[in-house]
């Protein structure tokens, strides 16, 4: 994230908003653990859901779109995380990407969960 001039914390917030789960992570050269310069994506969860190489390419595209949104929001909000988070609310780009991510993920059910037994139903 550092070369893109965005923190892992901000990127994590955008990804959370679009239904992508990842972790902010410190990388060499970070000055503070509070504002890490990277993120970590857990491939195990994706392979457990039977995703293959082409699916990872789509996930990469989703991450790239999330980065573009993060950069745009940062330009509007300024450097503070609290202002950045405020700008995420009601963002049309966030809503559109979330819809795409949810539609994609719906094709890969979680092992051990039967959707008909779930209290809260998923809607793409």
From TrEMBL:
GO terms for biological process: glycine biosynthetic process from serine; tetrahydrofolate metabolic process. Pfam families: SHMT (PF00464). InterPro entries: PyrdxlP-dep_Trfase (IPR015424), PyrdxlP-dep_Trfase_small (IPR015422), Ser_HO-MeTrfase-like (IPR049943), SHMT-like_dom (IPR039429). The keyword Transferase applies. GO terms for cellular component: mitochondrion. Gene3D superfamilies: Aspartate Aminotransferase, domain 1. This is Serine hydroxymethyltransferase. One of its GO terms (molecular function) is glycine hydroxymethyltransferase activity. Keywords: Pyridoxal phosphate, Transferase. Its EC number is 2.1.2.1. PANTHER family: SERINE HYDROXYMETHYLTRANSFERASE (PTHR11680), SERINE HYDROXYMETHYLTRANSFERASE 1 (PTHR11680:SF35). Its cofactor is pyridoxal 5'-phosphate. Residues 1-62 form the Serine hydroxymethyltransferase-like domain.
